[in-house]
Every structure is written in structure tokens, then in C-alpha cells.
Amino acid sequence: MADNNQALAEKIGTLVLTGAAAWAVRKGIVTIWERSTGRPAPLDLDDDDIGITEAVLFAAVTGALAVFARRYAQRGAHRAFSRVSR
């Protein structure tokens, strides 16, 4: 029974850390985008005012950093729960 509780706690912790990492990455990307381009971040990629190059670049950067943040949040949660369960 303790293994099931630990597994559930680790899953919840991973979910929380992943959500926090995604939020931080999004805030960081928007801030860096606006400072470097002088334009608002293209949050609606279907908007006709946004060029295809800008939309693809923003989507690629956002996707890459989201995967990076998710992967390291999962690893961090696993390490933290491994230390706690010793």
C-alpha cells in the first residue's frame, strides 16, 4: 500500500512541478520575445497579422523550451521523491 501512495504522491508532485515549469517558460518566452522584437508575442498563431515566419519561429521556440522544462521537471520530481523515500 505504501508503494501505491508513494507512486501517487510522485505523480502529483510531477504534475505540479511540470505545470509550474510550463507557466515559467511561457512567461519567460513572452517577456524575451517582446523585449527582443519590440512586438507583442504572437499568442494567436492563426491571426492574419502574424507572418508565417514569425508564427513558425515562435511555435518552434515555445515547443522546444516546453519539452525541455517538462523533461527536467519530471527528473527533478523523481529525484526529490527518491530522496524522501529513503
What does it look like?
- It is a single chain.
- With 86 residues, this protein is an all-alpha fold.
- The chain has one domain.
- The protein has 2 helices and no strands.
- The longest helix has 36 residues, at 2-37.
- The chain is elongated, with a radius of gyration of 17 Å.
Strand content: under 5%
The ordered string of helix (H) and strand (E) elements is: HH
Oligomer: single chain
DSSP strand count? 0
Number of domains: 1
Mean pLDDT: 84
Main β sheet profile: none
Topology readout:
Blueprint: H1 2-37, H2 52-84
Question: Can you summarize this structure?
Answer:
The chain is mostly helical. The chain has helices at 2-37, 52-84.
Keywords:
elongated, 0% strand, 86 residues
